[in-house]
Amino acid sequence: MKINIDKLQLSDIYNLNFNVFYPLTKFVSKKQFINVSNNMKIEKNKFFPFPIYFSYKTKIKKNKIVKIYYNNNFICDLKVNDSFTFDINQKKTIGYKIFSTKNKEHPGLKKFLFNHDYFIDCEIRNFKYNKKLLKFTDPKDLKKRLQKNDVNSLVAFHTRNVPHKAHQWIHDLGLKKINNLLIQPLVGQYRKGEYKESIIIKTNKFLVEKIYRNKNVYFATLYSYPRYAGPREALLHSLIRKNYGCTHFFGGRDHAGIDKYYDKYESQKICKYYEKKIGINIIAFKEPYLCLGCRKIINRKCKICLSPNKLKISGTFIRNLLLKNKKIPNKFMDKKISKMIDSNSLIH
Fold it and tell me: What's the whole-model pTM score?
């Protein structure tokens, strides 16, 4: 049997194969699916916050070997342990828990509820690594670099954007607290109006190599995709960074959220609560902003000019400027980076 997969399934296979999702090393079984949803565990003592599943339109027989292809490239074999389904009430119960909402317009929940009916409990076999298919960083390669440089502590910064001045404030905070920083953008998003993955990689790598030029700042990619699951996905991102050799992780504002489905710091709070079970330290912080009085990026009440006037700097704000073909002021973004982007940098 042969199945052609999409890019989202491809990234899940890569991440499972290279232990990015460890301790999960295969697509979940029905028992694991329910246990992760209810208890955030794949087994008795193995914490895991979000089910990584392979869905398909029809049932596949047990012990079947499925040939997996992406764009005519052989990827791997999947050994099928079981095919299973949930009735609509079970599916709703699971969906509400893992996406922390009952709103069926939520893009992640909507896709989960109304996509394929069958899930395949399966293991990866005969994986063929093709570097040309996606911009992937093997955790082993990064860990080797860290070991070579005798790095014992490392904080990860997660982003889906071109870097702006508020990001740089967070980077500076990480270097002050931990001394070593990993800038690891998530690449693999497909929503209109967001940055193309090539632009995200190009600008963040430029920041690390040409602007920072700091031996303590590392760059890697996380090839996955937004599930828009808010708190649960933030926990997954934290666990992933542990698997990349990080000791600390920035819990961002509305991390992995979308629109108004989650509270502003909900993801930070849940990551902080579970940090011991994940095995990584969470750095929580208030959102930085531009003080319009002294023109500096801060995240507390300004003690310099005492001005109450502030301006939020966000990826959405800057992308809207690009869509209107407006120049990005230097107070929002380093001019060396802003020169690298325009409206064509976005997915249309």
Answer: 0.94
